[in-house]
Write the structure tokens for this entry.
Amino acid sequence: MTSVGTGYDLSNSVFSPDGRNFQVEYASKAVENGGTSIGLKTKNGIVFAVEKIITSKLLVPGKNNRIQTIGRSIGAVYSGLLPDGRHLVSRGRDEFNSYRSQYKEDITVPYLIDRLGNYVQAYTCYNSVRPFGITSIIGGIDEDGTHLYMLEPSGSYWGYKGAATGKGRQSAKNELEKLNLDELSTRDAVKEAARIIYQAHEDNKDKDFEIEISWISKEETKGLHQFVPEDLLNEAKQYAEDKLNEDEDEDEEDEDENMEE
Amino acid sequence: MEHDPFRWGRPSDQAYGEYNNSIAHAGQQQSFPKMNTQQPIVTGTSVIAIKFKDGIVIAADNLGSYGSLARFTDVERLFPVGDHAVVGISGDISDLQYVSRLLEDLEIENNYDYDGHSLRAPHIHEYLQKVFYHRRSKMDPLWNSTIVGGLDDSGKPFLKYVDLLGVQYSAPTLATGFGAYLALPILRKVVFEEKDVEKIDEETARNAIKECMKVLFYRDARSLDKYSLITITKKNGVVFEKGLKSEEQSWRFAKDIKGYGTQKV
């Protein structure tokens, strides 16, 4: 970043001469170092998964969730600053409930994400605040079907079939592209999600991590956003580990063959 | 020349007469004292429920009466909440709709946390009792009597009543409205006190409730022979049956009733 130190990066809402907003870009940097989050959209459901780096052995396993429920059949996961994510989810819940009390029906996912997008964008416009240090993946089921979006610190959001953010996003995206998400069942998507998180963690192997997976599906959870049950989580972890070992074995075999040559 | 700057640009009193300030303050002005609900308007009649050894059975018909007019015939008055509870509501239908929305909000909020706790019947009853008593203390009651049924924290059958005054009580058989006079005596023949619950199976409880719904249709002039029935057990959770009909009715006695309608006595 050549323009760093020119003074254009010190305050929010100020463009640099070449048309960049540095505070927003720095916020994205905060996201890039966070644990990997992914979201998958299948034909009938949504799956969220996140890699939680264990920063202390004293932390209680299964607590300090990074996947949260915004309302009934809408969930969110985020990479970046944890408290910023908590705040965004809290705002999402307020939006969900106020829409319900006004219109006596549930908010649609595209409308919710639009409201949240505007909210996040406002934090790039004022000097008294800083942008959100998170990229969040938000998805759910409404009367029009399944939806998955990714919302960035700038306030821009895009619809996805599979979305990834955080440190391991690059390899996660590669793996997501290989999946046939239109044919995949939501149950199988849970396993693939685990695999992708395990794979994305490979570059960060020295640190311990915990995996968190949730899903939304008419068939499996009555349309509610819920964490996957214990046995399915274990099954998914096992599947991920097996797949990873398979790949490693293949690599070793390849290497052996090369040696022979 | 008008010297008051606040009057500049306004219609002059000379041309239009003095401004009627009540127009600008139409909302705040009260020509009548504040009034809260004085009586229910569209109403639902009895809700009846009974415990059996594995759970509870609860039923309510689908009628919304406008006074003596059978105005709406497809009103659902049983509301499952969470995985092991149901709320049956009689009384004012608009207040019923409000309460049902409160219950939905409660459920949504409960789903935020994944702490292993689930919303159970005793919690829902406690909450509803607080809401009803708060509203009666504001002299603006929600005009309903309700029965909350389901399983408690230890998985035992739970049945408790709460009404527009915040009055609450628990019993192995419960009924609201006319059901308290017409159905309870029949249900008490099946289960008289708490220790009888152990002896009763689902089949017996169901049949007793069905029989009571029929009796209620015979004798309660604000009732319907179409009703919903919910069974809650640990094994099967909430089983919702809608649009049941009271079968094997016999109205032969009707011809002997004299003194009503257009008949000559």
Notes: The mean pLDDT of chain B is 93. The first helix of chain B runs from residue 13 to 16. The interface with chain A takes residues 101, 104-105, 108, 111-112, 114 of chain B (CB under 8 Å). Chain B has seven helices and 13 strands.
